[in-house]
């Protein structure tokens, strides 16, 4: 692998790993803040116990989110120095605002929320939990503002071949941001919701602390259901926005080599031949692509071959503007499919929990446990589609990935950092999952809280 | 004053704030293996920074973000040029951050011990590498006409930068021990003060060596013939006062002075650097300055307005959090993390 591949691998590994913990943290602290609020309003001890129990899982996730977030901020300069020079005038601003507005808020109020319980009135604690939650949402907003610029650069003028910021409001009003932000944040809330729901289902299956986990499940599933529906709508508007701003990504996600017919049909699955630039076979639903692209039963969509010709005229010849089609095509389907599954699961769980029938439906509880990893996979697939689908660009239409990489970082440096960072991620991820399982297996009231001596490296820990 | 100058000052202030605040966090982290005799005492020490350390570290993230926004070429040159040191620095911060949070929920004593070692290791390595970074920047690094830095091992690891690294470790350790003096009682309190006296002597020696090496390795005394000596004298004076106050039991004043020592040191480095941000050892014409490394005026003026609006709030709630947790962490206290 050359320098560019290694740098891309490290970026992908860091970002994917970081973004396992980000949505989990955003989602769980939102749910915890709801519980803290219920405790203040209803004054029932059970809501405090719930906030403390789920708060522990939030903290385990947040710690890893923070330390890998530092890496995220520094790696633009470390691995992508030419990118940083190119976009610095625009891209640094949202990052600095994120630190100033969001990171300080999260980190200060998290301290108050954890350590202030015995010193401060309970409404201040609930307020602090909300401040942490709002901090995480603001953080998402600003980093997505930066990402949206990469997808659809706005608010700039090109001076001496470089983008110079001329209109900050355009950066904030970027249409891409307003379809991407709700989609990502709602995805995060659903991630937290399905984790809390799945763990509650596990406990209900074991018939432990029924009231505690029924209430938790209820809150979590309301959050997941509302988010799930919002994810679908915002995803749909994002696809339509893509039609205008990144038609190549859209065409790749549909494996559309030639221009579609009118009305356009949508391929559920396809066997793609990227060499011959055609599909060997595909299963298609008529009209659906027209509906996805235009909210209409007619209209054709341009294929990759046509777009390649258009891009060659716009950006110059000799470059393959078609992203890795298979990756984009399948990651889109994995994301959308799992998204649909999440909505169904949340709906069923909410309905039968209301009727108090969950306990007689072990299959549904088991299904909810199986849903825990699904939002993580969906989030990752979504980002893979977004970022791979933008290739070969880092900033759409302005700067390519190959131009972005640091010239002074050697393959040896990168190999070393890849091994060290990826190794750390594996260890941290393993420990985090183990710690969460350990928290889950304990009684939330801590009555069976004996200091058991479990060795992480023992056979029991890795056995069944 | 131009916007570029304002942003140089702002970045300096962010670094000063970071070293002042995270300085004692580092010192407390180091002291867990120096003055605590068991895991309970180590926890008592870690709890002194429990509610604060995370927000203190954000000062560094904000400084990084500010450099990216205001001086993108500085950001690009420094982070790519110091690639390997930054890999280690990030590992140190990962170890420390995860160590502090996860030691609250340990699996057993053995794991608690591992987390505590990670806190210690990270707390030593991080300030050391920052010392290496800043001193080698002042010494000059091989930066070419395209602002690209081609550093080899000896460019960032040499006698001067290693002494600089040790100096920063000692400064933060003094600051941390003084902070422990202010925030604890019981046996660790006594041991912190007795270790503090020894470390102060190390620091005095270190500062003298550092001053001499600075004279030979950098142009700090040439470009700032008055300011640099004045700073050095003030640094030693502040350290001396810190030492005296600590021994008289005036812990508030001792902490003010140990903090002042750090503030003056970082300020001296930035004053000497100005108006450069990265010094080229190849040719002064290749230096990165607040002019050629900066963003456009629109971005700078925008960021100035945003920073001036947000900073008062940030400072407000950070100060409030210190006020909430102003009581000493007692020997017998146990914090309920649940």
Describe this protein's structure.
The complex is a heterodimer of chains A (464) and B (338). Helices cover 72% and strands 6% of the residues of chain A. With 464 residues, chain A is mainly alpha-helical. Chain A folds into 2 domains: 21-65 and 76-246 and 323-414 and 430-462, no CATH class; 247-319, no CATH class. In chain A, the strands form 3 sheets. Chain A has a two-stranded antiparallel sheet. Chain A is globular, with a radius of gyration of 23 Å. Chain B is mainly alpha-helical and 338 residues long. Chain B has helices spanning 3-31, 39-49, 53-70, 72-81, 83-102, 109-139, 153-156, 159-183, 187-217, 220-223, 227-247, 251-273, 297-324; strands at 276-278, 288-289. In chain B, helix 1 packs antiparallel against helix 6 (109-139), helix 5 runs antiparallel to helix 6 and helix 8 runs antiparallel to helix 9. The relative contact order of chain B is 0.15. Chains A and B meet through helix 2, helix 3 and helix 15 of A and helix 3, helix 4, helix 5 and helix 13 of B.
Per DSSP, the total helix count of chain A is 16
Report the principal-axis shape of chain A.
globular
What is the H-and-E element order of chain B?
HHHHHHHHHHHHEEH
Largest sheet strand order of chain A: 1-2
The separation of the N and C termini of chain A measures 37 Å
Poorly predicted residue ranges of chain A = 447-464
Distance between the termini of chain B: 50 Å
Indicate the percent of residues in helices of chain A.
Answer: over 70%
């Amino acid at each position: 692998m050359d320098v560019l591949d290694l740098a891309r691998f490290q970026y992908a590994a860091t970002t994917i790993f970081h973004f396992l913990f980000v949505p989990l943290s955003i989602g769980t602290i939102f749910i915890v803040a709801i519980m803290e609020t219920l405790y203040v309003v209803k004054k029932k001890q059970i809501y405090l116990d719930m906030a403390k129990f789920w708060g522990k899982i939030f903290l385990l996730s947040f710690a890893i989110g923070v330390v890998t977030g530092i890496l995220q901020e520094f790696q633009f300069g470390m691995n992508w120095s030419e990118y940083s020079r190119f976009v610095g005038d625009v891209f640094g601003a949202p990052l600095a605002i994120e630190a100033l507005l969001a990171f300080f808020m999260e980190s200060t109020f998290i301290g108050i929320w954890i350590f202030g319980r015995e010193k401060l009135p309970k409404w201040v604690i609930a307020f602090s939990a909300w401040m942490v939650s709002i901090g995480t949402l603001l953080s998402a907003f600003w980093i997505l503002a930066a990402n949206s610029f990469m997808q659809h650069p706005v608010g700039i003028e090109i001076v001496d071949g470089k983008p110079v910021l001329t209109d900050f409001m355009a950066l904030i009003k970027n249409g891409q941001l307003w379809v991407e932000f709700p989609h990502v944040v709602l995805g995060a809330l659903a991630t937290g919701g399905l984790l809390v729901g799945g763990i509650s289902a596990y406990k209900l299956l074991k018939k432990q602390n029924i009231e505690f986990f029924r209430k938790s499940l209820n809150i979590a599933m309301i959050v997941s259901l509302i988010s799930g529906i919002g994810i679908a709508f915002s995803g749909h508007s994002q696809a339509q926005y893509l039609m205008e701003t990144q038609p190549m990504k859209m065409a790749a996600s549909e494996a559309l080599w030639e221009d579609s017919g009118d009305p356009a049909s949508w391929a559920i699955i396809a066997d793609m031949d990227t060499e011959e630039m055609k599909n060997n076979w595909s299963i298609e639903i008529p009209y659906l692509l027209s509906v996805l692209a235009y909210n209409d039963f007619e209209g054709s969509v341009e294929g990759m071959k046509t777009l390649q010709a258009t891009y060659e005229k716009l950006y110059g010849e000799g470059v393959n503007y078609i992203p890795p089609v298979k990756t984009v095509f399948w990651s889109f389907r994995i994301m959308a499919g799992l998204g649909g599954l999440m909505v169904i699961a949340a709906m069923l769980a909410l309905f039968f929990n209301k009727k108090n029938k969950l306990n007689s439906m072990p299959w549904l509880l088991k299904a909810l446990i199986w849903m825990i990893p699904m939002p993580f996979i969906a989030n990752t697939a979504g980002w893979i589609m977004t970022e791979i689908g933008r290739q070969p660009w880092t900033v759409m239409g302005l700067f390519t990935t190959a131009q972005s990489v640091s010239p002074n970082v050697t393959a040896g440096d990168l190999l070393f950092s890849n091994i060290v960072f990826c190794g750390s991620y594996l260890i941290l991820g393993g420990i985090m999952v183990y710690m969460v399982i350990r928290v889950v297996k304990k009684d939330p009231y801590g009555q069976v809280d004996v200091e058991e001596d479990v060795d992480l490296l023992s056979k029991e820990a890795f056995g069944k | 004053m131009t916007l570029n100058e304002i942003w140089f000052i702002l970045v300096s202030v962010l670094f000063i704030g970071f070293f002042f605040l995270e300085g004692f966090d580092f010192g407390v982290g180091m002291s867990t293996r120096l003055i605590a005799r068991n895991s309970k005492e180590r926890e008592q020490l870690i709890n002194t920074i429990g509610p604060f350390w995370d927000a203190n570290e954000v000062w560094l993230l904000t400084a990084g973000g500010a450099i990216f926004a205001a001086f993108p070429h500085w950001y690009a040159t420094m982070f790519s040029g110091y690639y390997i040191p930054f890999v280690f620095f990030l590992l140190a911060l990962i170890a420390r951050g995860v160590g502090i949070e996860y030691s609250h929920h340990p699996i057993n004593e053995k794991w608690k011990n591992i987390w505590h070692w990670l806190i210690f290791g990270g707390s030593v390595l991080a300030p050391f590498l920052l010392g290496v970074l800043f001193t080698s920047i002042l010494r000059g690094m091989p930066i070419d006409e395209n602002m690209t830095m081609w550093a080899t091992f000896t460019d960032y690891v040499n006698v001067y930068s290693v002494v600089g690294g040790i100096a920063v470790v000692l400064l933060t350790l003094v600051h941390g021990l003084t902070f422990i003096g202010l925030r604890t009682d019981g046996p660790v309190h006594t041991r912190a003060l007795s270790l503090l006296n020894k470390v102060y002597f190390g620091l005095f020696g270190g500062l003298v060596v550092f001053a001499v090496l600075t004279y030979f390795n950098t142009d700090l005394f040439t470009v700032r013939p008055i300011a640099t000596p004045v700073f050095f004298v003030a640094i030693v004076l502040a350290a001396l006062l810190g030492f005296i106050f600590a021994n008289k039991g005036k812990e508030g004043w001792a902490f003010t002075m140990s903090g002042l020592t750090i503030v003056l040191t970082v300020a001296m480095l930035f004053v000497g650097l100005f108006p450069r941000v990265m010094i080229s050892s190849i040719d002064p014409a290749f230096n990165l300055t607040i002019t050629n490394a900066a963003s456009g005026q629109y971005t700078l003026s925008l960021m100035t307005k945003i920073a001036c609006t947000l900073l008062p709030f940030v400072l407000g709630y950070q100060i409030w959090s210190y006020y909430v947790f102003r009581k000493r962490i007692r020997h017998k206290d146990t914090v309920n993390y649940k």
